[in-house]
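Hey, sorry to bother you again with one of my protein questions. I've been puzzling over a protein and I'd love to understand its fold better. Take your time with it, there's no hurry, and the full record follows here:
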Amino acid sequence: MDHHGGRPRAERARQLADVLRQQITDGGFPGGALPDERVLGTRFAASRNAVRQALSLLRQEGLITGGAGWARAWCCRSTVTAWTG
């Protein structure tokens, strides 16, 4: 099990998803593009696996799209303002 600061990765991923969700809905990613996983991991002091899991949660919610292929580019959905959680 991957731990960060004594917390299991799944819990860390949910917390990171909450932070990213808030930043996305607040327009915190100009142009709608999220930084790559490495940058997000550094910014939020999270493992790459926790970042991937958080992004996967947001994709399942329909808040972001992408994540396929080498670039693993993630984009905020244009309907983000209509998202209610």
The chain has three helices and four strands. The helical segments are 9-25, 37-44, 48-61.
